[in-house]
Amino acid sequence: MNPNALGFPLLCLLSPSVMASGFVDDSTLNLSLRNVFFTHHYADYFSPTKKLTSKSQEWAQGFRLDFVSGFTPGLLGVGIDAKGMLAVKLDGGAGHHQRGTMIPSDGDTGVGSWARAAANAKIKYSNTTVFTGNAITPSIPILVSDDTRVLPQTYQGWNFVSKDIDNVVATGGRLTKATGRYSSDRAGLAAAGGTQESGGFNYAGFDYTPTKNIKAQYYFGQLEDYYKQDFLGLTAKHQFNPSQSLLADLRYFRSRSDGKNGDPGYRIAGYTKDGTGIIDNNTWSASLTYTHTAHSFMAGYQSVSGNSNFAAIIPSSLPNKEAGVFTFYLQTSRLLYGFTRAGEQTTFAQYTYDFTAMGVPGLIFNTSYWRGTDIKQSNAGNAQEWERDIALHYAIQSGPAKGLGISYYNAIGHSTASAFEYNYRNSENRVYVNYTLPIF
Fold first, then answer.
1. pTM of whole model > 0.85?
2. Which residue has the higher pLDDT, 132 or 11?
3. 137: Cβ–Cβ under 8 A, 6 or more apart, which residues?
4. Which of 386, 391, 293, 403 lies closest to 345 in space, CA to CA?
5. Side-chain-facing half-sphere of 298: CA atoms under 13 Å
6. Secondary structure (H, E, C), the chain
7. What whole-number distance in Å separates Cα of residue 269 and Cα of residue 289?
8. What is the rounded radius of gyration, in angstroms, for the C-alpha atoms of the chain?
């Protein structure tokens, strides 16, 4: 389906009065500003003969203009959503750009600026909306659009969202291209290690919320010629009293080989049973979060089965690899590591404090620790890794700067997995400043 063939001709035929009655009157235009300072330090941990010390330091300012139209009146409402995006490098020159993951490369330095535009046409019938274009940003368990840098990742294709059934939100679609978090170009889709593009990613699923404290989910995804994946999820919250609650979160992914997976060009990277490059994985996790007044304590466990890594779209071997997904719907998807390797068993804990209790609304602190063991490797014994994260968030609650948000992240980790070539520590610092200005 041509993303430009649906919706746009219809809009051109509508009279100004019809357009104004829904399309214009219900439209919004927002300017989002994001400033990100990002440093990542790689330092050799054990081996003095294989010293690896490097640092990437990047700083950029992003501008994003989001237009969301209303719908024209009638049985079928027509509309359009559009994004205009620009990022400007503030730091990331020669010597600071090594292994950079935020600013596109221009030799050994980062480009001065990069920009892109994206748009979706949309048609609404009852409570079901169909979108088609190159500005799709899915946020579902089997595919999460990455928005952890200056500009967001976007996809090309079509999808629908339906709320016609009470307590159910259903979605599905087909995606064929992606534009990465630090790219202006669209690229194909693949799994980690694959050198051939998939024909597309097909998906469907639903969230069922019978009460405000219970949500059940099922999703299916297919990255053609790489894998098929089922997801089951359940969250349940018990409110003991207004200041005390317990939240249970269960997640299960089942991933199996599809089509040409295992053939030359479609083999995945990392450990696979018998070195076949074939995807065969079960990943499950369970966590409990206890909240009492301003304090929250979370503890959990995740298990990745041993025949292959967790399956996801990460086209690390394609020419435009930055189009890949680097955010997963896993509680272990952290700043440094994903804890998604074959056989990996991860325990984790997190503490969060909300400073509203001390008279500072909008200020939140959390710290967490994640430890993965039993990582399978092709040519070595089992490996392990750990990560410690700290985060501090503040959002201004009132006044002319209301909504201005500042976040600071610090992470330290260490992995002995052979995929990292050497045993070394990683450390990372991030500072985000976000502000959205409504224009209309």
1. yes
2. 132
3. 145, 147, 152, 153, 154, 155
4. 386
5. 21
6. CCCCCCCHHHHHHCCHHHHHHHHHCCCEEEEEEEEEEEEEEEEECCCHHHCCEEEEEEEEEEEEEEEECCCCCCCCEEEEEEEEEEEEEEECCCCCCCCCCCCCEECCEECCEEEEEEEEEEEEECCEEEEEEEEECCEECCEECCCCCCCCCEEEEEEEEECCCCCEEEEEEEEEEEECCCCCCEECCCECCCCCCCCCEEEEEEEEEEECCEEEEEEEEEECCCEEEEEEEEEEEEEEECCEEEEEEEEEEEEEECCCECECCCCCCCCEHHHCCCCEEEEEEEEEEEEECCEEEEEEEEEECCCECCCCECCCCCCCHHHCCCCCCCCCCCCCCCCCCCCCEEEEEEEEEEHHHHCCCCEEEEEEEEEEEEECCCCCCCEEEEEEEEEEEEECCCCCCCCCEEEEEEEEEEECCHHHCCCEEEEEEEEEEEEEEECC
7. 34
8. 23
Q: What is the pLDDT of residues 190-228, one digit of tens each?
A: 999 999 999 999 999 999 999 999 999 999 999 999 999
* Cα 38 from Cα 35, distance rounded (Å): 10
How far is Cα 209 from Cα 215, in angstroms, rounded to an integer? 4
Q: What is the pLDDT of residue 13?
A: 46
Place of tokens 């990047």: 58
The residue-averaged pLDDT of 100-104 equals 81
pLDDT at 50 over 60: no
Burial state string for 94-107 with b = 16 or more CB within 10 A and e = fewer than 16:
eebbeebebbbeee
Q: Tell me how far apart the alpha carbons of residues 163 and 355 are, in angstroms, rounded to a whole number.
A: 36
Q: Which two tokens stand for residue 153?
A: 């990742």
| Burial class for 18, CB neighbours closer than 10 Å (0-12, 13-18, 19+) | middle
- Cα–Cα distance, 408 to 432 (Å, whole number): 7
CB 170 within 8 A of CB 348: no
Q: Residue length, the chain?
A: 440
Token match 């502000």: residue? 435
Euclidean distance between CA atoms 288 and 298, whole angstroms: 6
Cβ atoms within 10 Å of 176's Cβ, excluding its own: 20
What domains are defined for the chain?
8-438 (2.40.160.10)
Q: Encoding tokens for residue 217?
A: 């989910």
Strands 345-354 and 28-44: unpaired
CB 408 within 8 A of CB 428: no
